[in-house]
Amino acid sequence: MKLGKLRRTDVAKCVEIEKLLFPGDDPWSSRAFHSELDQGHYYLAARSDDEEFLGYAGLAVVGRRGEYEAEVHTIGVVPEAQGHGVGKALLRALLARADDLAAPVFLEVRTDNDTAVGLYEAHGFKKLGIRKRYYQPSGADAYTMARPAQAPARDEVAP
């Protein structure tokens, strides 16, 4: 598996995956993905060695130097690739980007998505609270989670 920049030509596949993963809610549209890319957010694609599209992930960074904050906007993995480390690799790449900026990272996740909650907790996220009826139209609740800023590795810090 390899990670690389999400291409605009990948958006249709992302929309397909959204519909599979979030059938009871409002999956992201093509317009939503294009808007994220237009805003310059950090989006990655996971592909198999033979270029099969496996998943995507996006991170938004806001603020100014020394005060950055990051938010995981989305992570999606095709059902047949789930449980094989794709989501973990995508999350780690997003966190590495946030760590390069020494930014804390925030996200929302369905309270009934035990697999995702476990993944986030294993990577240093803590539950901050609950957003009631966050996901629509299902009305599912979401945990708000955060991971404190991590300083870049010493040898990566510019003098």
UniProtKB/TrEMBL annotation:
InterPro entries: AcTrfase_RimI/Ard1, Acyl_CoA_acyltransferase, GNAT_dom, YpeA/RimI_acetyltransf. Pfam families: Acetyltransf_1. Residues 1-150 form the N-acetyltransferase domain. Keywords: Acyltransferase, Cytoplasm, Transferase. One of its GO terms (molecular function) is N-acetyltransferase activity. Belongs to the acetyltransferase family. RimI subfamily. NCBIfam families: rimI. This is Ribosomal-protein-alanine N-acetyltransferase. It comes from Amycolatopsis panacis. The lineage of its organism: Bacteria, Bacillati, Actinomycetota, Actinomycetes, Pseudonocardiales. The gene is rimI.
